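USER: Please consider what follows.
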Amino acid sequence: MNAVIQNRLALLREEMKQAGVDYYMIPTADYHNSEYVDEYFKAREYFSGFTGSNGTLVVGKDMAGLWTDGRYFIQAARELEGTGITLFRMQEEGVPEIPDFLYGQMEKGQTLGFDGRTVSCKEGRKLEKKLAEKGIGIAYGEDLAEKIWKERPEKPCRSITVLPEEVSGKSTAEKLEEVRRKIKEAGAEYLLLSKLDDLMWLLNIRGNDVECNPVALSYGFLTQEEIYFFAQKAAVTEEFEKYAQENGIIWKDYDGIEDFLERYDYQGKVFLDERNSNYALFKVIGQRTGHVDGDNPTEWMKAVKNETELSRMEEVYRKDSAAVIKFIYWLKKNIGKTEITELSAAKYLDDLRRNTEGFLDLSFPTISAYKDSAAMMHYEATEEHHKTLAPEGMLLVDSGGQYMGGTTDVTRTIVLGAVEDEMKKHFTLVAIGMLQLTEAKFLYGCTGRNLDILARQPLWSHGIDYKCGTGHGIGYMLNVHEGPQNIRWRFTDSMKEAVIEPGMVVSNEPGVYIEDRYGIRTENILVVRKDQKNGDGQFLRFDTLTFVPIDKEAIDTAYMQPADVERLNRYHAQVYEKTQEYLTEEEREWLAGATAPVQMQH
């Protein structure tokens, strides 16, 4: 594979030379800054061999570098070996950001090239500003992959479906009215909407153009009177056409967006989110009218779930939790008696979900990671590279589903046999942190920065950390990762720090990752609720949506205070109560033992 990558990079350098480009940048992105992208858009993977969901490749005449975050350091190092590509570990000491690196490497008069449709407006403008100081030009109309990648898959194009109001809880007309008001408040007349899950939410529709994300490749352009919707012709069904007519949605062809923006008769500024609009479209608008930068109003509105959404999610999470419990029961019963691999374990769990009422799809490919594989946060077992499980050590399984009525995400680390004392210590500290955050009571106005320490403190007190955030927002029949809310202690320029609002749904997933040895993560999903209000302000709390036992075989109460034990026992009592109706008698009996109260050691 490494010789193949080197050959592809050589071909890319030839194309760069012909295009008059000195350095070429390939991010992990489609035209909408989606987190997960379809095969058609995986040019960065094609040219680097790195398969993670986040990374940017920069290629020069004599160098190639790949920037990725802490989730992928171990995986990237392995996959880049022998390719000649240097790994740049983002946010590590001494590692430059891409604009600074390019500024240092490039000379006056040189040109940076990229496909402006795959670079966010914010990143493009940052590069533009930094490199202009040195007289370096930018060529943003260059999709050089198109000229080299001969077997490139077709662009995804699947049918658009309409969500009934009894599932969405709010009509498209109501949402449009509220968004138009917010556009005016921001001092603009129009909204360019490129973020796919925002657009699906706004129009109460769903698609299937991004793996595990029920979204359709599309753009929206909202005026004070109309909503123009740009989608691929083959994706438009009779059902959608009828729905569009009833709701005043003007359908136009997906590839016509640039031409439309160039020709439109503007009577004011365009509101666009620079983080989630592509650089190429921004340049078109900039030539015609002014713009207002800000968070998509749809992002905030979508994040605060309505009561219809929340009640459906509660039901979906109970059923989904039951599927995970059935999986853990099966795994514990069969380990050592029949051959089970990382792949076959994932398939068994995926099949349990598929047989669950209302199932539509997985919300992301299941992570099934045994022993040292789990030290890679986003490890993916393949037919060529996977482990066979044995009755020893632990299996980390991070998984979720898309259902009619909710999107789920849950991680459990499961004991398969003998585990070392250190692993028990780390497992217990993770459980303590996860449960501390679960039972947080906090004032309105807090962001995830205020809450993160509750999950991290038990680990920090032992000099341990994990290189990722503690929590992310969860979609409603949409992306498993959504903003603006998240829980983390450190924010970079590209991250949004948002006030935690009642109705938001967020993950809670501390972990420990010891390279070449093991990984531990315990993840529940929480919903933000109002608590008491008094002279000190409005207090908030979390309700739990996930009800799956935490493996007591790895709990060491020597590291726990009485309050920690009480939290664990309280949670386990809820697990049994919320899920037992979906289980067989044998499974219920096992669950009763798995959730029985833990006693403190004296």
Summary: DSSP finds 19 helices and 28 strands in the chain. The CA atoms of residues 32 and 195 lie 5 Å apart. Residues 161-302 form a domain with the Creatine Amidinohydrolase; Chain A, domain 1 fold (CATH 3.40.350.10).
